Amino acid sequence: MDYTEYKKPEYYWNRELSWMGFDERILEEAKDKQIPLFERLKFLSITSSNLDEFFMVRVASLKDMVHAGYEKPDIAGMSPKVQLENISGRTHKLVEDQYRVYNKSLLSSLRYIGLYVVSNHEDLTTEQGVFVDEYFEENIYPVLTPMAMDSSRPFPLVRNKTLNLGLLIRKKDSKKNKEELEFATVQVPSVLPRFVELPRGEKGERYVILLEEIIERNIGKLFLSYDVVCAHPYRIMRNADLTIDEDEAADLLKEIQKQLKRRQWGEVIRLEAESGMDPRLLKILRTEFNIKDDDIFEIKGPLDLTFLMKMYGLDGFEEYKTAHYTPQPVPALQNEDDIFTNIRKGDIFLHHPYYTFEPVVNFVQRAAKDPDVLAIKQTLYRVSGNSPIIAALAQAAENGKQVSVLVELKARFDEEHNIVWAKMLEKAGCHVIYGLLGLKTHSKITLVVRKEESGIRRYVHLGTGNYNDSTAKLYTDCGMLTCNEKIGQDATAVFNMLSGYSEPNSWNKLVVAPLWMRNRFLHLIEMEAEHARKGQKAHIIAKMNSLCDRDIIAALYAASAAGVKIELIVRGICCLKTGIPGISENIQVRSIVGNFLEHARIFYFYSNGQEEIYMGSADWMPRNLDKRVEIIFPVEDIRLKEEIKHILEIQLADNMKAHLLNTDGTYSKIDKRGKMLVCAQDFFCEEAVERNKKPEDVKKNRVFVPAEPAE
Questions:
Q1: Are the beta carbons of 476 and 681 closer than 8 angstroms?
Q2: Which positions are annotated as active-site residues?
Q3: pLDDT on residue 448
Q4: Pairing mode, if any, of strands 565-570 and 587-592?
Q5: Tens of pLDDT along 336-370?
Q6: Which of 59, 111, 141, 709 is the most buried (most CB within 10 A)?
Q7: Which domains does the chain have, with CATH numbers?
């Protein structure tokens, strides 16, 4: 079908500004006084780390386009230059909001519960000053390296994302005139804790001070022959987007290692400077970093608020944190049978972090030790630092099994980490594949080939999230363990494609990008539209991280215009506009921002009562559909389909953490007055606990047990 009429720029939101809306929604959580105080610290920290990555990758990419003279508009009709102008204004406002929350709300709330953040070293008591000075001498001074700039020493390399103190200094015996000022800089050591807890007050009150304040207090000890005229913290962000010509890279692993070093030298795209910085010092930084005024952020508070995530870990404040949730055992595996026997009984659905990730780890560990297992094949994108899955794969190879692992070296900001354990796997005897030329492998699939009495049987795990046992406690993801023969055949074809470049003519069950997935989704959406045109019930529910593919959005518009009810649960970027008369009036978009990061991708199509459900690794984005190896898989078991419909039902009922997309592009919390309160994430936590008390009583657990109606 031709969707041209639905592709006008005015029908789309800009991708980058939509992403900023997501960070603004996280900031709203930091503002919410109904949330435990320390959780608010965590949300504010996340807004800071998100903004860093946004600048290093997305803003950096737009600047590259401007430098190259690229003027082609995006789907919303905005050129790279116009996008940068809009981003700049919005980012400055976001940063102002961040520090307004920090200074005017969080600090006073922390003081109220007896925790004081010493923002200025001059405010220290005599006793605290003695403690801080001793701490400096013993722990900080030996690590510091002051660097100066003069006629014989060029401006030093300032590394990406590091916190630094910039100084203007003057020789003690010089005449006090402007010409004799010299520039110096000191990096605040990232190897030391960002904040230090001071001795408690007389009434038990607690104090912390930031590392840069301790250094500034003692800065004269680093420049004994100089007077320090001023000292101010600053921080830079560099272009960190790797540009690799794979056709020219004879060895991808070596090329990525070389490119990683360049991240420290990339163009400076953002400068954060302490508000009130001496204008002479700011001028030097502006000149040396060759940065425009729009890219300078004068910060009214401590730079780099990610330290708040560490502050969250302070003990003694548990009552101001959300109670820790322990992922529950998977009911289908609560018996004496091994995991392979349980999978043969029927497909097993996994919903993390409500249910433990342990079955996935156990699946690989058991396969590594099982004498009947012949081969293990797995794709790995991001794993934890001390991954039990990596250890199991290495052990499997040492046990003589055929182990093939596709390691995605281009997993952004995990490249160096992935190189290390890829080499380790190779040393253990695993066959390591570094992906397909020009494509990232983002699919989440594990294949275990086992010799049994009935012959060779293939066991498969498919998921929406990474094989990372750490993030599996923080991200909401779905997975399935199956020994379905046709899925097993497809899994073999996937790995043959990845290792041998052999593309199958057709697939039994799996839908694979970049060659087949886009058309399948467009077909499924068009079929719903066709049912609606015939006057039949038509319904689409799609849950994902991001939605910015123009073809998909245009197809959704056409389906909406035909009468299809469309409910989208999109965590982050959403370029689709709701409420366009005659086009998107049947579309509702919600974003859920909670204690866990929503990460699962689920796609539901009513299909004239046949109810097709898919899950997988792909968002509806051009990069996922066209530039990555992605997999979505059908859920056909009736029990599992009911479970996933239940998940979607609860998420669509959420009125605590859900934000609805308005016609003007803003998001609003749902009006809860007079309604039963539903927080999907809390509901699933409580449900998982209850099911393990009475695993047979599933229907009872599906009934809402909401809080009292809001006033």
A1: yes
A2: 442
A3: 98
A4: parallel
A5: 999 999 999 999 999 999 999 999 999 999 999 99
A6: 59
A7: 147-193+219-300 (3.30.1840.10), 331-503 (3.30.870.10), 512-701 (3.30.870.10)
